[in-house]
Structure formats: structure tokens, C-alpha cells
Amino acid sequence: MSITNSHVILLVGAGPAGMAVASSLAKAGHEVIILNRDIKFGGLAEYGIFPAKLKLRGGLKKQYWELLQQPNVHYFGNISIGKGKDLTVDEVRSLGASAVVFSIGAQGTKAIGVEGDSAQGVFHAKDVVYHFNRLPGFGDRSFEMGKHVAIIGAGDVMVDIAHWLIRYKKIERVTAIVRRGPSERKYNPKEIRMVCANMDLQGITTEVGRIKDRLAVVGQNADEVLKGLTDEFTKCEPSVSDTKMGFKFLASPKRILVDANNRVRGLEMEENKLEAKGTDTAAVGLKQYYEFPCDSVVFAVGDKVDETVGLPYKSGMFVTNPTKTSNDPDDSLFQAYDEATGKILDGVFLAGWARKASEGLVGIAKRDGDWCAEVVSRHLAIRQPGNDAKTVLDKLTTILKSRKSHPVDVQRLRALEAAEKAHTNTTDCIGEFKYANNQEMIELIERGKA
Known about the structure:
Helix content is 31%, strand content 21%.
């Protein structure tokens, strides 16, 4: 795209969606200033995918380094946005950029609100994933899982957590708790290869047989369903533990059972049936309950955005413009919107999971960022540039100094990376050394050793 005037864009968040926005707009000749909560860039690619996927992570990291070394891209790591944080949303908007894009992911966690969900041994999937990816604040926390872990959910995140439990924690048993049946599983068949060598095939056969009559009601043949499920257990990664993995289908957790020390001892589950719902099915409770013993519970049921950021928020999501356009992609889907005033937040855009929580992984997030960049480009094309990059950067630096913030630039990131590579501890699932504490990294940087 050719332009006659260069604009300044503030981008909040440096995950796959944000970096896609930054790449497109920087290539178009605009000045891009990135504010990132974490010291390191990458977001989901750094802290959200299974760490054994080092080839994927390495390729993304190489692309991101190349982007951040462009002269018209300016990186500020370790900067949080929100009330009481380094900057508020209003302060970011007041810096005078032509557009502000929030690609901050979905940092909240959905809860299904069952009794006992604050017991010891109850975890949210995001926290567990952050833990084994060494996100500061999570990497050095203790996650005592016990011998038998129940994971609520049937998607790729469930598989990643099961992989970690099987391959690295080497616990005795993992059970995926699924509201509907085997045919409604959501994980990618390629992902299940990470854990299928540990599948309890006899137990799975028994479980599908247990619910065969309920499957038949919606026209599902139990033998065919079982074959479809187990036929995906091919090209399995070699087993490195004796962990057994199974499923509990047509089951909804209703209450977390605890012992005298408020520690998980099991789940109270409700039996479900399937009902046809258009071309899909729905789970309907049967009011029949039973106890399912386990030592810990992980809820892998999706995410919501962080309502404390300060953007208009409703029902787990930031609010976008309800007035559709005929553009492709639709501008309204990416525009922040204030329902209280009935107006869009002019020049404020959303991308990635900040726009649509839990929608796909790295590839989907990148595509969303590309689409957002198109929308922002249309916005810029009919506007005169605002403040120049130096003015915006000077205002930003002045505020951060007054807050005694500790921004981390690309040069310091390079030095930090070199310090981490100097460590040889690669014995866990990370496959590479990472500092798991922000304070440790900041002190290392400010001592001049990174």
C-alpha cells in the first residue's frame, strides 16, 4: 500500500494478532509503538502453546525479532494498561496517535460457578499453561496435581494439559470430562497424537458402551463412534510414562467435593443425555448424580477478556460496534464501542482474542491481526496524521518516568535472551531456560548484565 503521510499507531499487546497488525502497518510506512504487558513479546506464541513445539515457536520468534528491529517499530515491554497500572486507556489515547489497537488477548478465565471451585487443587487451564510455559507470576508457583487429574473440556487446551501431566508430571491417571459425547470432541486429531500412546483403550471402550443407548437416541451408533474416536490414535508419540488417560462422557460437574482440609477429593457429576439441536447436539441434564474421585480439577472451558483494562465491557467480552458495514473485513467487528454513549471509540480497535476470546490459536490470531490492519488502514486513509512519532514517544516516556515504570526495549531484550541462552538447564518440558520471575529479569537488566 502506498501512502503520502505516515501515521503513528499505538499497539497494546505483542502476541500473534498484535504482531500481525504491527507488521502490516510498519510495512505500509507507518510508525508503530508497541506497549506489551510482558517483558518478552510473543503472547500466546511464547506462553500459550505447548513448549515442545520449539520449531513453531522458533520460527515465530525469528519473524518477530526481524519486525522489532525495523526503524519505524518501537517496543516497550513490561508496560501494563489499566486502572492503577503503568498507563490507563485514556492516557494511551491522549498520547496523540492516529489509532490505538488493543491486542491484549483474553486474560480473564471463565468459571462455570460450581460449588467448591475455590478448593485447593482446582485450577484454570490458562494458569496451568502459563505455569509450564514459565510466564512470570505463574512459572514459579506450585501446582500440586496429585495422582488423578480431571480436566473439564475436550479441546486442544485439554490435550496440551494432558500432555504435560503424562509426559512431565507422570501422574497415574488423567480423565477428560466431556459434557457431550465422543462425536462432539473439539480437539484436533493431530494434537491427540501427543498423548494417544497412554490411552486406556479398555476403559474407553467400556465408557462408550455405558452411554450407547443415549447415543442411539440421536442416531449415533456406539460402535461407529468408538471406531471414529480410536482410529485417531495413530502416529502416537512414544510413551514415556505409565500414566493412563481416559474420558468420562455425557457428564457435567455440579459440585467439587473436598476433604476436611478443603482439598479436592472428587467431583459430583450429573449424567447428561443428548438432544438434537439443528445439525448439532446439546447436552441436557438427567438429574442423576454420582461421585467421581480425583485429586485435582482443571477447568479448560474457555476464556474471557480482562474487564479491569478500562475498555467498554459486557458478558466476558470487550464491546464492538453493532452497526455493520459492507466492507470486507467488516470495520465494525474491530471498532471498540461504548454502549453508554452509543458511540464508537474513535480510532480504537480490537484484534485477536481481545476481540473474540478463545477463537483459534496462533494461525487464527495472525489472520485476525491481518484483517484488523486492513480496517485500521481504511481509518488512516481518510485522516490527517496526528502527532509525529517523536512527540508521542516523548510524551510516553515522560509519563512512564513519572510512574517509575521499567520499560524494556529491544536492545535489553536481546541481552536478556543471551543471558537465558547461557543457561544449560533444559531438563523440563520447556526445552529452554526461562526466567520465571519479572523482578529477577528487571534486576538483571538494570545491573547491566542483560
